[in-house]
User: What shape does this take?
Amino acid sequence: MTEHLGFAAMLAWLLDHRELGVRDLADRAGSTVDEVRAVLAGETPGEGLLRRFAAALGFRAVDLFILAGLVVPDDTAPLDAAAGRWVPHIVMDAAHLPAAGRRELLQIVRALPQEERRTRFAPKQLAPLADGPGDRVIRMFRYRNLDWTGMAKTLAVVTPTYLSAATYGVIGAGRKDLTPRLVTHCAALLGIDATELAALTGVRPDAVPPPAAAEAVDAAALLWELRRLSATQTRHASELARSMRGDSHDGYLVNLPGP
Assistant: This one.
């Protein structure tokens, strides 16, 4: 069974992997050497410090909160859980577009006005998650408005991974281990370095992960931007993505980027 690393061990690994010293991180994060050393010694970082660590290390704050096993602040969550109904279809339709079309759709989504948050983000969970590596990865997708079914569909189209929705629930519950292949493909859709995600989830890769395909890179960017949209905005974006695709059939090709 894959064991979850504590945040101190994760931070120490990241600093070593990136050849950064304690002083380097402190300077980048606007913190003190003593604060960094305290976290490396096992002290739980406060919300403000963890946000600064995320910026200094090039992580999205929500991902670092999840990896650290801490409560995710409301302001880093998706705007509207109801928008998750359309998110996978937008990303899958976008993956069928040529590169120029994917860029155009992303620019349109980014240009949509920011609406006010009306409710607290509270995604439905069909089964309890375990406090482990699988839970962390599943939660990162949940905070991108993808449930198990959304994960199954989207990963199948933009990566070579084809698993059932229920399998992701089993992984999240800790009854099935993450594999190097799955971590690599999840990292592509999450927009996280695959080597780093593997190490931070305690998975030993079989080899150096290959670069993510262009379709997966663009899908990750679009998936992230969709987090800030309301359900109404996301529905309109879904209609646009479908019209841009212009196919006469309703299906999706699996594993578009190829092996």
